[in-house]
Each structure stands twice: as structure tokens, then as C-alpha cells.
């Protein structure tokens, strides 16, 4: 009985090892690369969009938070380029429809809210958090895929970015709860 279980386990291990060897040519790996291209486009687009959001912010705290995220986003672009290099791939961006929509929504917030108001800051935080949640979902999924394929170093890089996205989301939540929302209510 134990021999059959051991044989099945050995067969699964051999099958998994063979699958990992073939991974760079698999549909699963192709999905991973396509998703990297998607988030690469998203991050590059954010480096262009965040300065506009920062300029539109009223509070210095929100301006600082957006500027900090801009610096992180530039680093995320660099990390993605490093990952493409590790995969022996050219860093190519594939238009991210979701991020394009989120950026458009952020621009609408600026157009639809009063300049120099905390209501605008509240709306900007919401728009920024929508972006953060998209990034958290993307990086969490990419990290998981990298782990499954045995790309542990890439998974570690993606985990670092994922944690920074979560930290930014928490910072925005804290800013909204402690300052912006209460001042926005009184406007």
C-alpha cells in the first residue's frame, strides 16, 4: 500500500519537474508574460498620470503621498524591466484597458470637483485607491504564478512590489480617515 502511494508521489514529482522544464514554452508561462506586459504598461502610464493628480491635490499630505507613490511606481517599472531581463524577454508593454479606465476616472475626478477643496482630495484618494487595488490584484496574481513556475527570485521581486502597493493603500486609507474625509464633510 505504501509502495503505491510512494509511486504515485514520485510520478507526480516527475511530472511537475517535467512541467517546470517545459514552462517557458507553455500557455501558462505565456499568460504570465502577457500579464507582466499589462502591468508594465499600467505602471508606465501611471508615471505620466500621477503628476497631474498630485498637482490637483489640495492637502500637502496627499501631495506627498502621491509623490511617494510616483517614486515607487518608477521603481516598479525598473523592477518589471529586471524581471523581463531575467526571463530573457524584451520589456514590452501591452495596453492595459483597466488602467486606462482608472486613469480616465482620475481625470474626471479633477474635472468634476472644485479646485482647492477637500472634497476633491477625498475623490482623488478614492481614485488612487482604485488604482492600488488593481495593482494589488495584479501583483498578487503574478507572484503566485511565478511561485508555481519555480521563479522564486521573480516571485520575491513581485512580493516586494505587492507589499509597497498594500502600504500605499493603507497610507491613503489612513489619510482619508484621519484628515481628508472629516474636512470634506464640513465643506
From TrEMBL:
Residues 1-16 have a biased composition (Polar residues). CDD domains: YciF. This is Ferritin-like metal-binding protein YciE. Residues 1-21 are annotated as: Disordered. It holds the Pfam family DUF892.
Amino acid at each position: 500500500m505504501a509502495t503505491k502511494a510512494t509511486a504515485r508521489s514520485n510520478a507526480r514529482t516527475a511530472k511537475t519537474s517535467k512541467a517546470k522544464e517545459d514552462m517557458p514554452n507553455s500557455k501558462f508561462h505565456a499568460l504570465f508574460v502577457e500579464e507582466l506586459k499589462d502591468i508594465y504598461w499600467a505602471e508606465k502610464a501611471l508615471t505620466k498620470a500621477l503628476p497631474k493628480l498630485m498637482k490637483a491635490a489640495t492637502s500637502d499630505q496627499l501631495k506627498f503621498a502621491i509623490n511617494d507613490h510616483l517614486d515607487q511606481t518608477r521603481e516598479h517599472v525598473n523592477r518589471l524591466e529586471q524581471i523581463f531581463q531575467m526571463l530573457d524577454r524584451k520589456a514590452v508593454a501591452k495596453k492595459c484597458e483597466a488602467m486606462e479606465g482608472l486613469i480616465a476616472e482620475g481625470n474626471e475626478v479633477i474635472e468634476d470637483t472644485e479646485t482647492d477643496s477637500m472634497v476633491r482630495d477625498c475623490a482623488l484618494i478614492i481614485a488612487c485607491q482604485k488604482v492600488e487595488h488593481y495593482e494589488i490584484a495584479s501583483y498578487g496574481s503574478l507572484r503566485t504564478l511565478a511561485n508555481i513556475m519555480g521563479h522564486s527570485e521573480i516571485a520575491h521581486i513581485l512580493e516586494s512590489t505587492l507589499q509597497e502597493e498594500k502600504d500605499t493603500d493603507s497610507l491613503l486609507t489612513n489619510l482619508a480617515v484621519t484628515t481628508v474625509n472629516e474636512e470634506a464633510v464640513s465643506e
